[in-house]
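INTERNAL AUDIT FORM
Audit reference: QA-55
Scope: verify that the stored structure record matches its stored sequence.
Auditor: D.O.
Record contents follow.
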Amino acid sequence: MIDLKDWLKLQEEGLQACGNKKYPQAELAFAEALKLLQEQQKELGNEADLDIQKGVKEKLALSFNNLAATYQLQGKYGFALNEYIKSSEIYRRIRGENSIEFASSLHNLGMVYAAKQEYQQAEELFKRSLSIKEKLLRATNPELQAVKDNLAKLLKKTGKNEEAEKLSSKI
């Protein structure tokens, strides 16, 4: 069984490297952290306590998310999508479709689709994320505001100015 301190250390290294814009270094740290968790998950199998399994899965979702963000920052959008999808699916299964974590993962996916200029997919994901976050967060929450801002920018970019203005008036 792995020591989760090793995973945490790699996560911290990755975050620090990202903060210093050393994305290849961050990518390596996050990939190694993910590998540790995947090994632990194999070791645990179905025999482990459900709380332990859930904890490992939450860390897996976070690890996929962090690796995806690093890919995204490097313009590796295909890789980013794959990892964000994995993260999103784990959050959907362990937290549910009406959770902040799932909504945030949808927003992250939307950001990648927007960067790839696949605006229809991005819009759908932003709207779905916004719908969930509006139910769970206060109107002044920065997470909610970020989704609204990104959706409004996308709507303006795609010529849906009226819809963007309506969204802005809700802010």
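Auditor finding: record pair retrieved intact. DSSP finds eight helices and no strands in the chain.
Action required: none
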